[in-house]
Amino acid sequence: MKTYLFLLLIVLAGCTQECTSQAVLLPKGYKNWYIGDFRCGVFVPPSYNPSKKYPLVVYLHGHTDTTSRNFGWYHEPSALADPAIVLTPKCPASEDGRWGDTSSPVLSPMMKKTFEMIDIIKKKYNIDENRLYIHGTSMGAIGTFAAIQKYPDMFAGGYAICGWASPVMGPQLSQVPFWIFHGEKDDIVPVEGSRGIYHAVVAKGGKQIRYTEFKDVKHNAWNYVNNNKVYAWLLAQRKGAVHGRPDQLKNVRGKVDEFSHVFLEWGKPDNSLKPDNNSWYYKIYRNNNVIAEVDNDKLNYTDNLVNEHTDYEYKVSVVNYYFKESELSEALRVKTGKK
C-alpha cells in the first residue's frame, strides 16, 4: 500500500505534455456522453451500419488529461480498414480513486462508471463481444491493468504505456494478449513496475505478452510509440481465435561491411496471403541468443556489436500478430574481418 501511495503521489506531481489542455478539432462521429456529471467521449464511425458488428476500444487517459483528443482511431488507416467505436472516459482531477490500481480488489468509482458506459454502448450499438480492447497512458495504464485484473475474460487485448501493476496479477494478465511500453529513465512512474509485471506473466507461462522499453526515455514514452502499428496489432486480436505459426524464413542473407559489422537482410514469408503469415516483428539470433527485435516494416538489421576476426552464426524468425513464432531460419555463418 505504501508503494502505491508513493507512486500515486509522483504520478500526480508529474506535469507532462500529455496533461496540457488544448482546443482540438474533433471528427464527425465524436460526441460527449454523460452518466450524471461523468463525461465520456464516444466516437462512432460515420459509416456505422447496424447490421455489422464493430470492435469497441476503451482508452484511459493520464492524470488531469481530460481534453478531448483527436486520436488516430478516428482516421485512416485504422478508421478505414477496420473502423471501431471508441470510448474515452474522463476522470475528474478531483477524483481520489482515479482509474484504480491492482492493489485494490474492487473497481474505483470512475472505473465502475466506465463499465456502466460500456454496457450502455453495447445496448445501443452492434458491438462484437469478441473484440473489446482497452489501453491507457500513465494513470490510465495503471487503470488498464486494474480493469484486466478484475475482468480478464472481457478483453480481447490491450496495451499500457508508462504504467505499473502488482506482479500478483500475472495469472490474469497472462490470459490477455498484451503489449507493455515504458521509458527506461521514467522519473514519474518507475520502469520497474512494467518490468515486474512482464516477468511475472512470463514466469506464469504467459506467451501472449510483449515488452518494449525505450532507452534513455523518461515519462513520455507515448511519443515513441507508433500508434498505427499498435492499432493494427490490437485490432487483429479476437477472443477464441486459434492461430498457428508463421512459415519459416528461407531467404536470410548476410555480409560483412567495411567496418566489420554484419549486415543481415531477408524477405517476408513466401505465402503472404496466409493469415498466420501476418508479420508483426522479426527476432534476430546471434549464436542462439536473441539480440534484437525488428518491426515488420524493416527487412534488414546491422549488428555492430561484434568482434574482429570472429565466427558468428545468425538465425532469424518471424513472429505474427498472434505471438506465434516461426521456426528459426537456417543458420547463416559469417566471419568478421578487420576495419
Instruction: Estimate what percentage of residues fall within beta strands.
Output: 25-35%
Radius of gyration: 22 Å
**Could you describe the largest sheet, including whether it forms a barrel?**
8 strands, mixed
* Assembly context of the chains: single chain
Strand order of the largest sheet: 1-2-4-3-5-6-7-8
Tell how many strands the DSSP assignment holds.
15
Domain module tally: 2
Describe this entry's structure for a reader:
The chain has 339 residues and is α/β, with parallel strands linked by helices. The protein has two domains: 21-235, Rossmann fold; 253-335, Sandwich (Immunoglobulin-like), CATH 2.60.40.10. 20% of the residues lie in helices and 27% in strands. The protein is built from seven helices and 15 strands. The chain has helices at residues 2-13, 78-81, 109-124, 139-150, 170-173, 192-203, 227-235, and strands spanning 30-35, 38-43, 54-60, 85-89, 127-137, 157-161, 178-183, 209-214, 253-256, 262-265, 279-286, 289-295, 300-303, 311-320, 332-335. It has an eight-stranded mixed beta sheet with strand order 1-2-4-3-5-6-7-8. The longest helix has 16 residues, at 109-124. 37% of the residues are buried. Residues 1-23 have low confidence and may be disordered.
Any key phrases for this structure?
alpha/beta; four-stranded antiparallel beta sheet; 2 domains; 339 residues; disordered N terminus; Rossmann fold; Immunoglobulin-like; eight-stranded mixed beta sheet
